[in-house]
Write a structure and sequence with these properties.
It is built from 17 helices and 24 strands. Strands 18, 19, 20, 21, 22, 23 and 24 form a 7-stranded mixed sheet that branches. A 5-stranded parallel sheet has the order 2-1-3-4-5, with helices on both faces. Strands 7-6-8-11-12 form a 5-stranded parallel sheet, with helices on both faces. A hairpin with a 5-residue loop joins strand 15 and strand 16.
């Protein structure tokens, strides 16, 4: 006997298309364009033998409609809960998906994919066996792996069931420690973290997940029962990309997860495209490096990183190009082919042949190069035993900073049995006048001596302050606690901003980067200076009067937003 379908769709065009397609599949179709008449047809189907509907093709209304609401309430009633329904939707909005997820024997299909209705009808109309669930997952979100962390058993498993009905892969954890262990064992795309946990808070968990390289790609959403501003701020500052509230409707919660899923998929797509680009560059162009307008390395192929001795390409990206190449020579040269010496990861000299291309619109420099075989000159042969003079010369610091670098080099060994700690602080200063315009170079040079004197008066430990460049200064801060180092950093930068230039129209601003020497004893003085310089370059690209706390990967504003803000 031919299966009989009820098709409900107000649009005559869409109704005609789907009616003809369903008939071509061998179904008998009763097509109705009015929701009230469709409800009447459902109630009257049992009056004649053979008039029963095997299923319903329901065009979902995207505008408020009382008759539509009455129809879906009928489909949810006891008499019709076993009737298979395929929802035809134009936008797959969250409320549509939530209704589909909450009703048995129901699926959803976009109108543009109407020809897939045959497969859905076959699944919905077949009689399930005891071992088989006819339609357990109604949406294909299996590419998204979700971790739910909540110490409430009921909330934890309610969220799991809701997300699994949407086709997500879901794991659960009851607290901070279990979440860390679970996240390290598997790769998760989204983490839904309760803010108040018995063994911690959601923002602390979020920060730890993001900081761990093995779990750092997870997109965290904080789940809380309150709309308190301080909780939202703490969550967002910790790196969460979303805040969700426990009293929200399921439709809104799913809409937020949908948005996060789109973000994750886009990030995965960009990552795949980046890897494909890297393969193409390595195959076609070989060792290639791009130096941006701000003189930092904005791109490097895997081959370029390898030839320059960088095991991890991330250590090369964002590096000040002057540490590798003669940036002044590159800026003064036009496009062409050249032979010269560069420095590699250990600051040894390598002979290279390179081709230079200038991108006029962006002022970027593209370098395609080869390292000549056997051409490594170990200017600094043993990274651990570099002299302070080697470091000063290699990093192009003034000779006046030699005592400062010697003190930095000696600290890891001298503090072995001490309760004190040491951190390296680098500060860049900027002078501007009028409407924020930077001063010309000759005026800045005239102020440099005044700034250096003022900064040395701030921190009077011998050899603990030095000028490391035209506008860069280094500090070795001794402290007993980490927050004390943050406060010292903020205080030094505030004093820097308050330096009297002698001209009312001229103001000083600064940027900073703080990196623990005591907590990174495995790194040489060269590495400490290079990493801190990279962090400072990152801050310079963002904004003035902020410092990057490199150990914590967070920004510290010179002037706190509130008087009682804790560092």
């Amino acid at each position: 006997m031919t299966s009989r379908l009820l098709l409900v769709e107000p649009s005559a065009t869409m109704r005609y298309v789907l009616e003809n397609y369903a008939q071509s599949l061998g179904f008998e179709v009763v097509a109705i364009g009015d929701y009230n008449k469709a409800e009447e047809a459902l109630h009257s189907q049992f009056r004649s033998y053979g008039d029963d509907f095997a299923g319903v093709l329901l065009g979902w209304s995207i505008v408020p409609d009382d008759s539509f609401d009455t129809l879906i309430n009928t489909l949810e009633s006891t008499n019709f809960t076993d009737l298979p329904v395929v929802v035809m939707s134009t936008d797959m909005r969250a409320e549509t998906r939530a209704w589909v997820a909450g009703r048995e024997h129901t699926a959803v299909l976009q109108w543009k994919e109407y020809q897939s209705v045959d497969e859905l009808l076959q699944k919905l109309l077949q009689k399930p066996t005891d071992e088989q669930d006819t339609f357990s997952a109604k949406f294909d979100n299996s590419d998204i792996n979700v971790l739910i962390v909540d110490d409430s058993v009921s909330i934890r498993f309610a969220l799991r069931d809701l997300f699994e009905l949407q086709g997500y892969r879901v794991s659960v954890a009851s607290g901070h420690d279990e979440a860390i262990a679970t996240a390290q064992q598997s790769s998760f795309d989204i983490g839904v973290l309760d803010f108040y946990l018995q063994d911690g808070t959601g923002d602390a968990l979020c920060r730890k997940l993001i900081a761990d390289p093995s779990t750092g790609n997870i997109a965290c959403a904080i789940l809380t029962g309150t709309y308190a501003d301080h909780i939202i701020k703490r969550s967002l500052r910790a790196g969460a990309v979303e805040c969700m509230f426990k009293n929200e409707s399921s439709e809104l919660l799913l809409a937020r997860i949908d948005a996060l899923s789109r973000f994750v998929r886009q990030r995965k797509k960009l990552g795949a495209e980046q890897r494909r680009l890297d393969e193409l560059v390595d195959t076609l162009a070989g060792a290639t490096m791009v130096i941006g307008a701000n003189d930092t390395i904005s791109y490097a192929s895997r081959q370029a990183s390898s030839l320059l001795g960088f095991d991890n390409r991330a250590n090369l990206l964002g590096l000040n190009a002057a540490q590798i190449v003669d940036i002044r020579k590159l800026r003064e040269s036009s496009a062409g082919k050249f032979r010269t010496q560069w420095r590699d990861a250990s600051q040894g000299l390598v002979n290279v042949v390179y081709r230079q291309i200038m991108l006029e619109q962006s002022n970027d420099i593209v370098l395609n190069f080869k390292v000549l075989a056997g051409a490594v000159t170990p200017a600094l042969t043993n990274p651990v035993s570099h002299s302070a003079n080697d470091i000063v010369n290699a990093m192009q610091f003034p000779q006046s900073s030699l005592a400062f670098v010697s003190a930095l080099k000696a600290y890891p060994e001298s503090l072995k049995d001490s309760t004190e700690s040491v951190s390296l602080l680098l500060i860049d200063t900027f002078a501007s006048e009028g409407a924020g315009e930077m001063l010309p170079s000759h005026k800045i040079d005239g102020l440099a001596g005044d700034i250096e004197t003022a900064l040395k008066n701030v921190y009077k430990r011998e050899n603990h302050v030095a000028r490391l460049g035209a506008n860069r200064y280094g500090f070795l801060l001794r402290h007993t606690t980490q927050p004390q180092a943050f406060l010292l950093t903020r205080k030094i930068m505030q004093i820097c901003n308050a330096i009297d230039t002698g001209e009312k129209s001229v103001s000083i601003s600064c940027t900073g980067c703080l990196y623990g020497v005591s907590s990174n004893k495995d790194k040489t003085a060269t590495q400490l200076l290079r990493l801190t310089s990279q962090g400072l370059d990152v801050v310079n690209q963002r904004t003035k009067n902020q410092a990057l706390l490199l150990d914590l990967r967070r920004m510290l504003p010179v002037y706190a937003s509130t008087a009682n803000e804790k560092s």
